[in-house]
Amino acid sequence: MLNEEKVRTMIKLASYEQNEGKKYLPVSKYYRSDYIGLALIKNFFLITIAYILILAIGVGYFAEELLDNVNKMNLVGIGVGLIVVYLILLVLYSLVIYAIYSVKYSRAKKSVKKYYVQLGKIAQMYVENDVDTIPQTESRRKK
Question: Rounded distance, CA 88 to CA 77, Å?
Fold first, then answer.
């Protein structure tokens, strides 16, 4: 005879795995520093690519004016200014990414912790009530 509480718990777990678990369970496999570090590395490459594309579009748009005035411009000053703007953007976006991914990681850990508590309840129900009906795994079959 099936225990109704066990069935309800198993349904909740299956629902979690199909919905929230799809985004939270993979996150729980990482250490916090690794998860946030990967996000920051991805952010670095995306910001760099976006900045280069924006510069290329700007240079393309103002190409005629730039070529006409190239000998009058302070190229070193412009270069330093572009690098400073890039670094400011990189730092700002990195701080935002750090905050967002810290919150995501915390939420995922809390959610997965509840999931594992429910798994523990089911395991305890098997131990207490239905030792003979525990599904046979490969390791138990060999014994």
Answer: 16
The whole-chain average pLDDT of the chain stands at 86
Q: Where are the alpha helices (DSSP H) in the chain?
A: 4-18, 20-27, 32-61, 63-68, 75-128, 138-142
Return all residues near 44 (Cβ < 8 A) that are at least 6 apart: 90, 94
Q: Which residues contact 99 (CB under 8 A, 6 or more apart)?
A: none
In the numeric block, the tokens 């270069």 are attached to 79
Using CA atoms in the order 60, 61, 62, 67, what is the torsion angle rounded to 10 degrees? 40
Helix, coil or strand: residue 133: helix
Give the predicted TM-score (pTM) of the model. 0.73
SS3 1: coil
Encode pLDDT of 93-143 as tens digits: 999 999 999 999 999 999 899 888 888 888 887 777 755 555 555 544 444
Residues 35-55: what's their mean pLDDT?
A: 97
First-last CA distance in the chain: 26
How would you write 34-49 as a 3-class SS string?
HHHHHHHHHHHHHHHH
What confidence score (pLDDT) does residue 132 get? 54
